[in-house]
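Dear Dr. H.,

I hope your travels went smoothly. While you were away I took the liberty of generating a structure for the chain from your last submission, since the lab meeting agenda had it listed for discussion. I wanted you to have the full record in hand beforehand rather than looking at slides cold. The sequence, exactly as received, is reproduced here:
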Amino acid sequence: MSNSVYSINKGINQSIEFKGLKAQYIWYLGGGVVGLMILFAALYIIGVPSLICIGFIGTAGGFLVFKIYRMSNTYGEYGMMKALAKKQIPKWIKVYSREVFMKI
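The corresponding predicted structure, in token form, is as follows:
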């Protein structure tokens, strides 16, 4: 028998990455692009001139891509979820009675 050469997948258990975007940011960008397409169609149907529609959607799209890449680089794969969870934690807890500490 001849020897077979198999390629080894070394990306097991790693997050998805596409052109520098990590994990959920790919979905955010995809949803933003779909939203911009719907907005373009709505503006065009309303009767806004097409050059103004293209300029507005192009500017909004550039801003969207910039912000999502910035969030991806700033927070990474799980950092944004951790930052949002950290905001949910109270900074201090007020206790007006010692009764909580006296219970055995």
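Two observations you may find useful: The helical segments are 24-46, 50-75, 79-88, 99-102. DSSP finds four helices and two strands in the chain.

With kind regards,
E. W.
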